[in-house]
Protein: ABC transporter ATP-binding protein
Amino acid sequence: MEQPIVKVEHLSHRYSVQWAIQDINFEIYEKGILGLLGSNGAGKSTTMNIMCGVLNQTKGEVYINGINFREDPIAAKMNIGFLPQKPPLYTDLTVDEYLAYCAELRSVEPKKIKSAVLSAMDKCGISHFSKRLLKNLSGGYQQRVGIAQAIIHNPKFVVLDEPTNGLDPNQILEIRDLIKEIAYDRSVLLSTHILSEVQATCDHIKMIEQGHLVFSGTMDEFNNYIQPQSLLITLKNPPSIEELQQIQGVVRVDSVTAKNFRVWFEPEEDINNRIVNTSVARGWMLSEITVERSSLDEIFARLSGKSKLEA
Ligand SMILES: Nc1ncnc2c1ncn2[C@@H]1O[C@H](COP(=O)(O)OP(=O)(O)OP(=O)(O)O)[C@@H](O)[C@H]1O
Structure:
């Protein structure tokens, strides 16, 4: 079987007496963007810091591209790029000086540094600012430089900690596009509090709450975590509420306006077809039917609650 890019086994960490994360297990095989979600203090930064070799775990193992971090941290780090929440920028350097310095720190061969810098600047759309001092760049461009330093050594796995924090709406869109581009040929782990960001960028989601992994799956699986239980329907020629309530599987019907109704149904029922067929048979003239899905906030809250129940 194919080797995972990242493998985390029974990962636990304790700061003095308190466990920050406990028995976290997952593997990442896919290229693309994986969102790491969790409330404040859930354990995201602890997990990311351990995965990037910034923090030494109390228990468990992290393998990057098959390399055990404890056994060979230098080789493991060659496969990782990291953009911490606060980009580590030396603002008195120009863009190309800074990136050349980062390439050196990342053990890029001296003769390949120039081409690595040119390629990272090109990917991140900052070539035209190569001679500009970092302190004279806007927040969005500084963030691009932060991303450029994370990919300067062409790692297989890139970790970005809240990369759009503090940016204006246009800059946020630009950085999201850039993240999608760099995730085309590598795995990117993105930590964020912003649920709309996850929805706009991520293919997979992991959620940590109170130090435990409470969800791991695709964006679609996350969206469908709470089974829909209501529909909104519009009937041009509506019957009485009692008649609607008699449809098999319907639990309750609320009138929203004279022609709009919210229909609550038993989970697992094929209610859509039943409503459409009954409407046609009885001449109710159904003009709209929409399943009401839970918002990301509701799903997030449900998963946070789950961790509290399990704690
Ligand atoms: N250096 C530290 N010493 C003691 N406790 C810490 C330390 N760093 C984090 N913690 C605690 O560990 C737990 C997990 O913190 P962590 O920073 O990993 O969470 P997080 O999900 O990244 O939160 P945020 O989104 O607020 O950054 C929290 O209870 C936090 O208070």
User: Anything to note?
Assistant: The chain has two domains: 6-223, 230-292. The domain at 6-223 is CATH 3.40.50.300 (Rossmann fold). Residues 35 and 249 are 36 Å apart (CA to CA).
